[in-house]
Amino acid sequence: MPKRILQGVVTSSQNEQTVTVSVERRFKHPVLMKTIRKSKKYRAHDADNAFNVGDTVRIQECAPHSKTKRWEVVTEASAE
Fold first, then answer.
1. Angle at 71 (CA atoms; ends 25, 63), nearest 5 degrees
2. How many CB atoms lie within 10 A of CB 73?
3. CATH dotted code for 5-76
4. Helix/strand/coil (H, E, C) string of the chain?
5. Which is nearest to 78 in space by CA: 52, 53, 58?
6. What is the residue-level pLDDT of the chain in tens, covering all 80 positions?
7. Computed from CA positions of residues 68, 3, 53, 13, in that sequence, does the dihedral angle turn out positive or negative?
8. Where along the chain do its domains lie?
9. pTM, whole model, 2 decimals?
């Protein structure tokens, strides 16, 4: 089964080797037909402490690194 890759913005990098990434998804409400934005925070492993608050990054599913970390930072997303 392929690993999921999500793109989001780093909201916290205070912890050692960990960043908190906020991922936003948009979808259309089935009844109201209105676009809805929902966001969710993921804690991702950043081995080199390379990313800071405000960076746009891609994260990928991985084996657990700790109790809360199930994702790891793959690369910085290109500016589109």
1. 135
2. 21
3. 2.40.50.140
4. CCCCEEEEEEEECCCCCEEEEEEEEEEECCCCCCEEEEEEEEEEECCCCCCCCCCEEEEEECCCCCCCCCEEEEEECCCC
5. 58
6. 788 999 999 999 999 999 999 999 999 999 999 999 999 999 999 999 999 999 999 999 999 999 999 999 998 877 65
7. positive
8. 5-76
9. 0.87
